[in-house]
Amino acid sequence: MRILIEEIVEGEIAPGEMLAREVDLAERFDVSRGVVRETIRGLEERGLVAVKHGRGATVREEAEWDVFDADVLGAMRAGPGGRQLVDDALACRRIFEPEAAALAAARADEGVVDELMRAQDAVAGAAARARRNDAAAQRYREADDAFHRAIVRASGNRVLARMSEPLHRALAAAGAEVGDPKRRLAEHERILGAIADGDAEGARAAMAEHLAAGTKRPRARSGTR
Length: 225
Known about the structure:
This protein is mainly α and 225 residues long. It is built from 10 helices and 2 strands; from the N terminus they run H-H-H-E-E-H-H-H-H-H-H-H.
């Protein structure tokens, strides 16, 4: 499936073109036709192809692709539009996370603040380990992401929390760097302090500043233009 995703994303099979027949794909990859059908179903679920009974699978336009899917995102990142795609994802964060922080401040109570403090403590602990051990850097990135997710949950808006999850997963899959731990911890403290004080405007501004200065575009992969 990943090979076919790459071929579609790279334009080897263009929108409007048909995938090869099941029997031909089975022969090409030396798998059963059942495996091919599951693969095509996976492509369909990711919005890459449209399947019509008796006609086969047709590649769909790029606008229909599920850019939140890790395999699709990974393939697109290696193409000429990969950097723009990640920039678009980061722009989405800058739209909704400041509002999530403001909502969290407006409803802040002891439980909300305690959850965010635990998330921040986890970031601080992971950052300290990452400074001593490069292998711990991934744990730091995960803890940093968990802090941001906790703020979205603290907004109390279940729809917003649900909407943000695939975006966070996509950025994690894209390998977005989170920047200097010391600076980010200080920025987290400002966000957390504003939320704890019930200062919605302060929380919104602190989060906006944090995101504007913080998350960097991932390093370019080999072949990325």
